[in-house]
Specification:
Blueprint: E1 6-7, E2 14-15, E3 22-27, E4 41-43, E5 52-56, E6 60-61, E7 65-66, E8 71-72, E9 81-83, E10 88-95, E11 103-105, E12 114-116, E13 118-119, E14 122-123, E15 138-141, E16 152-153, E17 158-160, E18 166-169, E19 180-193, E20 196-205, H1 217-223, H2 227-237, E21 248-249, H3 258-278, H4 282-293, H5 296-305
Parallel strand pairs: 17-20, 18-20
Antiparallel strand pairs: 1-2, 3-4, 4-5, 5-8, 5-12, 6-7, 9-10, 10-15, 10-19, 11-12, 13-14, 15-18, 16-17, 19-20, 19-21
Organism: Ornithodoros erraticus (European soft tick)
Subcellular location: Cytoplasm
Keywords: Cytoplasm, Hydrolase, Magnesium, Metal-binding
Length: about 300
Amino acid sequence: MAYSTVQRGSGPWHILPSNVVLRTQRVTAFSSAVDGQYRAVEGGRPNTKDYWMFFPNTTSYSLYFKYGDSFISPFHDIPMFADETNRTYNMVVEVRRWTNAKMEIATKEPLNPIRQDIKKGKLRYVHNCFPHHGYIWNYGAIPQTWEDPSFVDTNTNCKGDNDPIDICEIGYRVANRGDVIQVKILGVMALVDEGETDWKLLAIDVNDPLAKDLNDVDDIEKHMPGMLKATHEWFRIYKIPDGKPENQFAFNGEAKNREFAEKIIAETHEHWKALVQRNEDARTLEGSRAAERHKPHQLVIFLFRTHRTVV
């Protein structure tokens, strides 16, 4: 498989030796609504500060849009619904189950690649919370949603955390980072994380063997006993090893049902639409605008000119 090597220099872009790798041809295993038509492309080295992932689209996706060979933003360009009639949603997988690296959609980066979170110059990982290893579900976000940091949620009395709404996929398959999967919403927990509203959706991959049996939050305990308790406990304690206090919850930690969860999703979708309309943060929205302005080969150059040097 051929690799291209790209580095930002003081002058024009140029090809360099293989110490810097842009894997424009490497495609991770993938799942999506229609025959895996979204593909995730990696760049840099995993577990380094320069690791990133972005999404080129090569064919039309489901019934919503067609990008041809254009690059897209997983935050703005992938539709929230996979199938609105059947109430299934698209989920962008940021973190594989049983892994520790804190990967997330970079909402302020051009094209919004998946990056590992950095704090005080160090890559972030979640600690193992006994008896679990890393994240206990496939973890990610629903595109075209946004928890508005200026909006005080009446359920939590806290403002949003400035990110797409988080989602925990509780099925059996260990997904791949960058997968776009169709999920059925089952419920939601209202986490209050360091004074911010941080909703945690609970969902099941529609292709999971248990999907036909799981339709609401009460079905989780029936068919996956212990999952709700483990999820609550994990979110409560996972920051304690970093010297932080345990997280708090609204509703005394109770997981609310599917109807309530979908109302929260709809609310965050409206906040996302308002963000796009206001165009308050040009960098956040640059991914979508760039996809309209540039051809794919130009987008690669555009991406790296607006990022830090890839090393």
